[in-house]
Amino acid sequence: MFKQSFLIFYFLLSVICINTVVAQSExxxxxxxxxxxxxxxxxxxxxxxxxxxxxLLFGLDSGFEQSAIAxxxxxxxxxxLYGETQVTGGGENTEDFxxxxxxxxxxxxxxxxxxxxxxxxxxxxxxxxNKAVGGILGYDFISRFVVEIDFANKIINLYNxxxxxxxxxxxxxxxxxxxNYPSISAKVRLPGLAPVTAMFEIDTGAGNDIFFYSPFVKxxxxxxxxxxxxxxxxxxIGGTSKIxxxxxxxxxxxxxxxxxxxxxxxxxxxGDSASTFSAGFIGNGIFRQFKLVIFDQPRxxxxxxxxxxxx
Length: 311
Known about the structure:
six-stranded mixed barrel
């Protein structure tokens, strides 16, 4: 789902106004805990109320620069739309995109308002047969908290960045913003090729392991790897694009090495899968192997905590 979901546009990031402060206790770390749903293919969903609506299904997607509401849902809530344009995503075509202003959100009691939110179709599969995907919480939301994703217990914890102190022994990786997307360095080993160290976007909206963008595939001749790959297609905003699927020997994130991850090699000629801003992205197929994944954007770091590093 979502990533193949990058949006390319040149509007200012929305400003988020927090109306309630994440709970704290006597100056110590205290989290607002929110239940999440995780699909079999690794996508994360939360229940979110919009302008006092019934709870809606929203994806949690660090690969989405700006939070967004599905067009059908925006119309059902009588939100006023403006600024129609076209955007690209993981597919090779474009899709309609517009904006709406001053939207109130409620996540299990954590309330905030976004001054500007994107609106687009979001015709993706839902984890609930009776509920369509209502929207996406993007990095403009994630970056205002310290966000701790606990895959095993199916919760996220939101911390106030000003009082948050990490005391664990997890793997701390610097975050670098590339074209407004959070990215980290990783080393990937492919059979028969020299190890590749590059910057990869962090994408909690993707269920796969590793995705290489087509310019990086071509420039580094990654398909010369000594393995057979399978032709396939991936779907996202803007339709479909061609990929080849194979496996890496390993991926190294800081001091952590994960063996035999799957790899998607993009063959796209247009859209975000043909981006040159980074080598590609890393999805939840990798991140869900950790006990905790902690986004601490105010300090520009990603913390990966394995079961062996549990606090």
